[in-house]
Specification:
This protein is mainly alpha-helical and 216 residues long. It has helices spanning 17-23, 26-29, 33-49, 55-73, 86-98, 111-147, 167-192, 211-215, and strands at residues 152-157, 160-166. The longest helix has 37 residues, at 111-147.
Length: 216
């Protein structure tokens, strides 16, 4: 893998190891690898469909990305703080596998919208997972309430015992609390599920991209 930084154009020396260790995010953003690869595959297919890159280059890029996916999933992929984050790792490895054609993947795309896409895809999956878990948890409280319809317990207010309540009602109070949490995640999905590719570094790109196709 090459350790040349994307931002190193104005620097003649190499980065100190302690700085690389401090600035590297690969220890935690490697969890985004599948989203980074999925986003890159979609972007690559769009570039080929729009005749921005050739079908030959697109096939090579996608094949290289799938090879990298398998290497990561099989724990054969090498990580290095010099490459800072998951994007640089994948880009560097792709260049090793397919050569100069790898550079064409970044056409009409910046790292800004790339990381925005990765995070949104990650949050979307995690939100769906949490919503499913909350659904299961709420069903447990409903089952407890049904199985204990006549159990009486002290109700508390300001940390002091107040009036007696049914345990079934107490269980269902938690059901309602978790229902509100689930609603918050569901509402959040509307904001998360927005496609950022095409924003590029600042104000879009002059290439004739098709954002709707890439999003699909």
């Amino acid at each position: 893998m090459t350790d040349k930084k994307l931002w190193s154009g104005r620097f003649s020396g190499s980065t100190e190891t302690v700085v690389e260790s401090f600035t590297a995010s690969i220890d935690y953003d490697k969890a985004l690898y599948q989203y980074d690869i999925d986003g890159s595959v979609a972007h690559c297919k769009m570039l080929a469909r729009q005749a921005i890159i050739s079908d030959k280059d697109a096939d090579a890029i996608i094949g290289g990305l799938e090879t990298i996916r398998r290497e990561i999933e099989q724990n054969r992929f090498q990580y290095d703080n010099k490459l800072e984050d998951i994007h640089m790792h994948i880009e560097s490895r792709l260049a090793e596998i397919i050569g100069p054609a790898a550079l064409k993947l970044h056409t009409a795309r910046s790292r800004n919208d790339q990381i925005a896409l990765d995070i949104r895809l990650y949050l979307r999956d995690e939100s769906h997972r949490i919503i499913a878990l909350l659904t299961g948890l709420r069903k447990v409280f409903v089952a407890w309430a049904k199985n204990h319809p006549d159990v009486v317990a002290p109700g508390y207010t300001h940390l002091q015992r107040a009036q007696p309540v049914l345990m079934a009602h107490h269980f269902m109070a938690y059901y309602e609390m978790f229902t509100r949490d689930q609603e918050r995640f569901t509402e959040g999905l509307k904001r998360i599920n927005v496609f950022p590719l095409g924003s590029a570094a600042l104000a879009g790109t002059t290439y004739p991209i098709d954002r709707a196709y890439a999003a699909g």
